[in-house]
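Section 3.1: Structural characterization of target chains.
Under the original work plan, the team committed to producing a structural model for every single-chain target entering the pipeline before any wet-lab resources were allocated. The record below documents one such target. The sequence was received from the expression subgroup and is listed exactly as submitted; it comprises 195 residues.
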Amino acid sequence: MASDAWLVVGLGNPGDRYRATRHNVGHMVVDELAGRLAESFRRHPRANAVVAEGRPAPGGPKLVLAKSNGFMNVSGGPVSQLAKYYSVPPERVIVVHDELDLPFDGLKLKRGGGHGGHNGLRDISSAIGPDYLRVRVGIGRPPGRQDPADYVLRPFSNGERETLGVLVQEAADAVELIAERGLVDAQQTVHSRGA
């Protein structure tokens, strides 16, 4: 395996029922990246996941894009198996996930930290430790007294869908920036957009 490989995991739940929901924005971002690579996802032989591999630019870093075949709250096992298979250390694992604590269309990059009640992150941290990179895609807080667990499993609103494509593209750009230039440079570029 190439020593410059990055494992990029898009969090989400499997099946058509969840495909367009806020909780699946991680899947949307890795789908965008796979489209850019002109690669299709295929079942991995050693992990309960599908993967697509390629380089965004000739001579650039290799991206291993992954989506678990299981539910988000049991993402840790597949991520750990893939990291071992591709010999990718936690500091070269990028997890793309929905973030309630950012307004819709917000985007933040970070390394490590807690899970903030996000069960997918909790399970991954239990499996490989907390020191992986996160691309946090803002979905906003639920309106009124709506339960966050219910909110994340609902589709994006009509208004949100108008700009969702741009958000997904910007998150995919952020992943490529991290792999090409490192976290600090990527943070300076991405975080300055919202300033």
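Residues 6-193 form a domain with the Rossmann fold fold (CATH 3.40.50.1470).
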